[in-house]
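=== RUN LOG ===
request id: a7f3
mode: sequence -> structure
chains: 1
length: 208
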Amino acid sequence: MRTPVQGPEAANFAGASCLPAPHHGDGGNLTERTPRVAAVLILVYPRGGKPHLVFTERTQTLPNHPGQVSLPGGSRELSDPTLEFTALRETQEELGIPAADVRVLGELGAVDTLGGSFRITPYVGLLTYEPLFRPELNEVATVIEVPLDHLQNPAVFADVEREARGSVLKVRSCDLGGYRIIGPTAQAVEEFLASDYSAAATRALFPE
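=== RESULT ===
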């Protein structure tokens, strides 16, 4: 499916990814060069009485990584004062979520793409209302909404082997409902689930 999908049913759509999928690509073995800097946003928000996370599927027409699934985000621009700003700016550009509406809870550990060309810092953000996503159609083919309780099931995570930089690497993967995200995306989501941010976001959205 290559059209934007919203609401709970969108959790059934995802694709294999080495994430994050920054706008300018992730190609080549760059072990002798400094990785480019990027940021992504783990956005937690309510949908149908449950906390959700959002992912995006890249369009097939993009020159780099068509069809891959990622967290919203991308490369830091020279005009970005911070990486937090980068994550919020990219999320607004890709999904139409106003940066001013997102409460940033904190950041997670940086992760490298499998090819080594990008180093990505994930940020955790909270949106207190059910969003109406307005995807940038030149970049986003599908908006993928996944309930948090699906990701909290340990059975959706596993180790898989992937070839990168001339070696076979063991990397994390996550089943989003029949499809998988692989590598840094899964790693970032797993770290989020193990952190205090997951419970804090749930309490903020659904106080007892």
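=== NOTES ===
Residues 24 and 56 are 16 Å apart (CA to CA).
The helical segments are 83-95, 148-151, 184-194, 196-205.
=== END ===
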